[in-house]
């Protein structure tokens, strides 16, 4: 058999796939322990609201049919809710699906994609898959995006810049003045993606370091800004995979072209519409999580930890070499957290009982030194 027959080498795969980091999902709660809570994936601990559950189950009766490919009902509901034209919307299989489409629409081999690091772990993966080159700009000592350094990293090859606000996994947020100054510096042919997966958890008051802007206000007069939102976090639909972008034409149109056909199931579409209609109750639950976040943050500070301000549904502890030990200690207390080896742990705000167990684990770990 000759080399050229291909038998010995297998199908040719794109070289860009070599060494793509694998996405690490948060570990599930242990099945055998006395109590076990999963605080490792930033999910919403509340079950779906009754109305949301019912409309989703109704859609289940028809899953022999393809979903509405254009997501008509959801697009109209979103247009109404956010005051944007339907032509400025694009949906996808979670906002990660939309982010992947954004890369497909803008970037390929030879192009550069800038984002802060550490930030959302999907960015390096989807950038590498597109064939483009990641340009990672370290967070500041305060664990915040260094927007000046990011602006300085722009070259002729830059096609896309992610700004994760608030940032996953640190929870920190950039303010209006610095973000607008940054956007003013970005060339108009470079797309800036404001990833606002945790927007609903933001509580900013102008007094505390400045307002945290709503990307959907910023995008309106900036054709090179796209905003990503998701139903996975505050809305509690992580398992249904639905997210969306708000962007001007032609970016939104490019997203609709590159999306996986029928990618958003009818269950997901109907659940998202029902969730938007139940928004008052949903956001009431988000308010409870924000109150818990403040309680956990204050508890950690009282124990002596240095914890960055968080505007999301999680807290970040920079533990360096002690990261794995800390995660193991939490696990012994019945809570699974998300370790980033050698860097720190991200802990999702969950049920009060789970948060109490986490605080206890953190306190014990500090005392042991
Ligand atoms: C969770 C998350 C998303 C959304 O994920 P999907 O479930 O794909 O919508 C997007 N960006 C960041 C920063 C996230 O943390």
From TrEMBL:
One of its GO terms (molecular function) is histidinol-phosphate transaminase activity. Its EC number is 2.6.1.57. Keywords: Aminotransferase, Pyridoxal phosphate, Transferase. It catalyses: an aromatic L-alpha-amino acid + 2-oxoglutarate = an aromatic oxo-acid + L-glutamate. Its cofactor is pyridoxal 5'-phosphate. The modification N6-(pyridoxal phosphate)lysine is found at residue 233. It comes from the Bacteria. Aminotransferase that catalyzes the conversion of aromatic amino acids and 2-oxoglutarate into corresponding aromatic oxo acids and L-glutamate. Homodimer. This is Aromatic amino acid aminotransferase. It comes from Streptomyces exfoliatus (Streptomyces hydrogenans).
């Amino acid at each position: 058999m000759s080399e050229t027959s291909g038998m010995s080498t297998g199908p040719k795969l794109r070289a860009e796939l070599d060494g793509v980091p694998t996405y690490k999902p948060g570990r599930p709660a242990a099945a055998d322990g006395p109590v076990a809570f999963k605080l490792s994936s930033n999910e919403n601990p509340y079950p779906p609201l009754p109305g949301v559950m019912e409309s989703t189950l109704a859609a289940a009766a028809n899953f022999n049919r393809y979903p509405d490919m254009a997501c008509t009902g959801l697009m109209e509901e979103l247009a109404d809710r956010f005051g944007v034209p339907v032509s400025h919307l694009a949906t996808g299989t979670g906002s990660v699906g939309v982010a992947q489409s954004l890369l497909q629409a803008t970037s390929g081999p030879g192009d550069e994609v800038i984002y802060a690091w550490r930030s959302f772990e999907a960015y390096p993966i989807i950038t590498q898959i597109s064939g483009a080159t990641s340009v990672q700009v370290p967070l500041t000592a305060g664990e915040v995006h260094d927007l000046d350094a990011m602006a300085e990293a722009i070259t002729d090859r830059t096609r896309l810049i992610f700004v994760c606000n608030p940032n996953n996994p640190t929870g920190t947020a950039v303010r209006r003045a610095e973000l607008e100054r940054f956007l003013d510096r970005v060339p108009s042919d470079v797309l800036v993606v404001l990833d606002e997966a945790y927007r609903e958890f933001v509580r900013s008051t102008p007094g505390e370091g400045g307002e945290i802007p709503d990307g959907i206000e910023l995008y309106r007069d900036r054709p090179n800004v796209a905003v990503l939102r998701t139903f996975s976090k505050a809305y509690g639909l992580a398992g249904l995979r639905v997210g969306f972008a708000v962007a001007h034409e032609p970016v939104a149109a490019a997203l609709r072209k590159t999306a996986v056909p029928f990618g958003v199931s009818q269950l997901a579409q109907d659940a998202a519409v029902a969730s938007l209609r139940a928004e008052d109750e949903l956001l009431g639950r988000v308010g409870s999580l924000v109150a818990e976040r403040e309680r956990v943050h204050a508890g950690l500070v009282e124990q002596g930890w240095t914890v960055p301000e968080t505007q999301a549904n999680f807290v970040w502890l920079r533990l360096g070499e002690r990261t794995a030990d800390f995660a193991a200690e939490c696990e012994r207390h019945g809570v699974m957290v998300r370790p980033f080896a050698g860097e720190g742990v991200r802990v999702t705000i969950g049920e009060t009982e789970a948060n109490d167990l986490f605080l206890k684990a953190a306190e014990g770990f500090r005392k042991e030194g």
